[in-house]
Amino acid sequence: MSDASASNTAAPNAGANSGIANSAGAASAAAGTPKPRLTLRSGPTGDAVTETVWSQVGGTPTFEALVRNFYERVRVDPLLAPMYPDADWEGAIWRLRSFLEQYWGGPAEYSAQRGHPRLRMRHQPFPITPAARDRWLTHMYAALDSVELPPMHDAAIRDYVTRAAHALVNTPEGE
Ligand code: HEM
Predict the structure, then answer these.
(1) Assigned domain for 3 exists
(2) Could you read off the pLDDT of 120-164 as tens digits, one per residue?
(3) Does any ligand 1 atom lie closer than 6 A to the CB of residue 4?
(4) Would you say residue 90 lies in a domain?
(5) Which end of the chain is more exposed for a tag (fewer CB within 10 A), N or C?
(6) How many Å lie between the centroid of ligand 1 and the Cα of residue 141?
């Protein structure tokens, strides 16, 4: 895992560490055999599923579609749009898309180009009020609706962006 795993929004989900435990783990460890890695199997004796969320949802084209749909909404949002660099929507699309791809187990392009994500710090220049957060999330939820991910992946990503957005509020309401 890259740099990004150390961020304040650390990735829980790269590779086999998907948080879905093989229930046989505890029993075989007790019997003295090496504890298996946390693994989701395709059946009781099937192959380990080591794919990432990133690959399971369709990789780059899916994240590209998600982020483009999201920014189409942000661009016409009177509260959010003025915060974004008007001449560089393509850059903003690349930054969010590559960050999300990296977070969900895809290529670590974001950190290769931008370094450590440090999202709190990078959002300091923008007045993120609870209202701005809620609008951001409304657009992200609508964009997630548009790409129709499998329900578990959809729920995981929704949960993550919700928590991340709450953590990025840096300005009380009304300022
Ligand atoms: C809570 C509401 C949020 C607001 C109002 C907001 C606003 C912004 C703005 C104005 C930018 C600068 C655009 C650019 O040049 O890239 C930005 C960048 C970025 N945002 Fe947010 N954001 C919010 C939440 C989030 C969340 C929840 C995430 C991640 C899950 C996120 C990830 C990013 C990333 C990766 C960048 C690019 C950072 C960089 O490399 O410079 N943002 N955001």
Answers:
(1) no
(2) 999 999 999 999 999 999 999 999 999 999 999 999 999 999 999
(3) no
(4) yes
(5) C
(6) 15
